[in-house]
Design a protein that fits this description.
This protein is an alpha/beta fold. It folds into three domains: about 100 residues, Translation factors (Elongation Factor Tu (Ef-tu), domain 3, Beta Barrel), CATH 2.40.30.10; about 120 residues, Rossmann fold (3-Layer(aba) Sandwich); about 90 residues, Roll (Ubiquitin-like (UB roll)), CATH 3.10.20. Helices cover about 20% and strands about 30% of the residues. It has eight helices and 16 strands. The strands form three sheets. The chain has a six-stranded antiparallel sheet with strand order 4-3-6-1-2-5. A five-stranded parallel sheet has the order 9-8-7-10-11, sandwiched between helices. Strand 3 and strand 4 form a beta hairpin.
Length: about 350
């Protein structure tokens, strides 16, 4: 099924947006230029939108940050979302492999609080991103660059290697246009993880600055830990969780390809066997169930289910969740052994 075969009138709750262009950012990342319908209410830089597609008859939704500016939307009537093809990612894979120029994407209204007040920005602004976490941040920086080109800003951007730098050309243009924007690229395969000394070298006044931090959960936890250890004062940090664990920060999981489970769904009376580290949500969907979900990355908690027996591994931290913990997020919970879910 191609995207163009989805009926634009399928639901009044969704809005059909035309795909104007599809751009390659890296080998694993694409930017989709889309034109929302006239009734779409717009956005603030740093916000995200829900995107829905139908994969093998199952409607699936993901949230993607808008990677363009309000100014561009007002000029051209388009916005962009930038998507990394996640391993085994059903929606990201569909977008990368099936969506073409001239197709349709279903979107919703923008939301999210990872935004900057343009009318009264703080004196010092430091942006720290890892991997795809650059997507909402570049939107904010570009907007500030157009509105206040003399504003002092620092971007500290971590990627695995040089081939994974997203928006390389846009960053180079920003560096040329905004003479007080300092950009620091770090390749974790060579330099290792973010450290206190490194952050202080890039931004000596970081503990007295407003910090906007976006990336995988484990990466952000480390950055906050390093910043808190860097001095007596703590910076003002706003953060946005983005995607799964950053490769350089990943907590070693048990041998996930060997993890097996037998999941008993109490409400429907079904029993499902799985192996290979599938999440509860993935297991349910692969057997035709359609439990509620939202972000699929452990942020929104819409997929929370009731576990009345057994243990699960938190995919983000690699830790076993205590057996007595009943409420778990299905999208990031990998069952181990016999697990019972009460409300499915």
């Amino acid at each position: 099924m191609t995207l163009c075969e989805i009926d634009p009138l399928f639901s009044r709750q969704r809005m059909a947006a035309e795909v104007i262009a599809v751009l390659d950012e890296t080998a694993q990342v694409k930017t989709f230029v889309i034109r929302p319908p006239s009734r779409w209410k717009g956005f603030i830089e740093g916000q995200h939108i829900p995107v829905e597609v139908e994969v093998n008859g199952v409607r699936m939704r993901r949230f993607y940050s808008i990677s363009s500016t309000q100014q561009r939307y007002l000029r051209e009537g388009v916005i962009t979302i930038t998507v990394k093809h996640q391993e085994h990612g059903r929606v990201s894979g569909f977008l990368h492999e099936r969506v073409r120029t001239g197709g349709i994407l279903y979107i919703g209204e923008a939301s999210g609080s990872f935004t900057l007040n343009h009318s009264n920005p703080p004196g010092d602004i430091v942006f720290i991103a890892a991997g795809s976490g650059i997507t909402p941040i570049i939107s904010i920086i570009e907007s500030l660059g157009e509105r206040q080109p003399g504003l002092a800003m620092t971007l500290i951007y971590y990627v695995r290697n040089s081939g994974q730098v997203i928006f390389r050309e846009r960053l180079e243009l920003l560096s040329e246009r905004c003479h007080r924007l300092n950009i620091h690229l770090h390749f974790t395969a060579e330099e290792g993880r973010a450290s206190r000394d490194q952050l202080l070298r890039d931004s000596p006044n970081i503990t007295a600055s407003a910090v906007y931090l976006c990336g995988p959960q484990l990466f952000m936890q480390r950055v906050i830990q390093e910043l808190k250890a860097s001095g007596s004062s703590s910076p003002d940090i706003r953060q946005e969780h983005f995607g799964g664990p950053f490769l350089a920060e990943r907590t070693p999981l048990p041998a996930m390809d060997k993890v097996t489970a037998k999941v008993h769904l109490q409400q429907s009376g079904r029993e499902i066997e799985s192996q290979g580290g599938q999440s509860l949500l993935e297991i349910a969907e692969s057997h035709g169930l359609q439990p509620k979900f939202g972000c699929r990355s452990g942020v929104c908690h819409e997929c929370t289910c009731v576990k009345t027996g057994g243990q699960v591994i938190n995919r983000l931290t690699g830790e076993l969740v205590p057996e007595e913990q009943e409420f778990v997020q299905a999208c990031i919970s990998i069952p181990v052994g016999a697990v019972t879910i009460e409300n499915w």
